[in-house]
Amino acid sequence: MYLTLLTLHSFMRWVVLAGLLLGLFRAYRGWLGGHTFSPLDNTTRHTAATLAHVQLLLGFGLYAVSPVVGTFHLRDAEHTPGTLFFGLLHALLMVTAIVVLTVGSALAKRRTDDLARFRTMALWFTAALLLMLLAVPWPFSPLASRPYFRF
């Protein structure tokens, strides 16, 4: 169960990143280019948020069965930075990023002006992307180094 969730969660991060980057591309293109908000833009907005929610659910499942998180105690976290990262920082930052992404998606959906839709989507999705990039355990991260792909 653990390895299956870990592999799915690792793979889905790239799918979420691709969906978010596509959403950002369309948002900035529409905002700066003065385009109309098309059904494809709306689908991209919705799909990016949905992919992030699926990733969050996989992360919650992984959090529940992870042996790294199972041994997490805040009082001991200063001695094992990887445990602190996965036990607290990763989860907190990713939940915050998904909330920011969801709020931005909902606000963009409710805007009536096309330019306001694109601007809202661009700004909120950018904030979510920055939070996600901070919270990913990149191979070069000093807090928790993990490979790009887990199998």
Q: What brief labels describe this structure?
A:
transmembrane; mainly alpha; membrane; 76% helix; Cytochrome B; 151 residues; transmembrane helix
Could you explain how this protein is built, in words?
With 151 residues, the protein is an all-alpha fold. The chain has one domain. 76% of the residues lie in helices and 0% in strands. The protein contains five helices and no strands. It has helices at residues 2-33, 39-65, 67-70, 81-110, 114-135. Helix 4 runs antiparallel to helix 5 (114-135). The longest helix has 32 residues, at 2-33. It is elongated. The two termini are 13 Å apart.
Average of per-residue pLDDT values: 90
| N-to-C series of helices and strands | HHHHH
Instruction: Tell me about the largest β-sheet.
Output: none
Our estimate of the beta-strand percent is: under 5%
Gap between N and C termini: 13 Å
Shape: elongated
Helix percentage range:
over 70%
Radius of gyration: 17 Å
- Please work out how many helical segments DSSP would assign: 5
What's the quaternary structure here? Answer: single chain
Query: Which structural class do the helices and strands define?
Result: mainly alpha
Low-confidence stretches: none
Number of domains: 1
Quantity of strands, as a count? 0
Keywords: Membrane, Transmembrane, Transmembrane helix
Transmembrane segments: 6-25, 46-65, 85-108, 120-140
Protein name: Cytochrome B
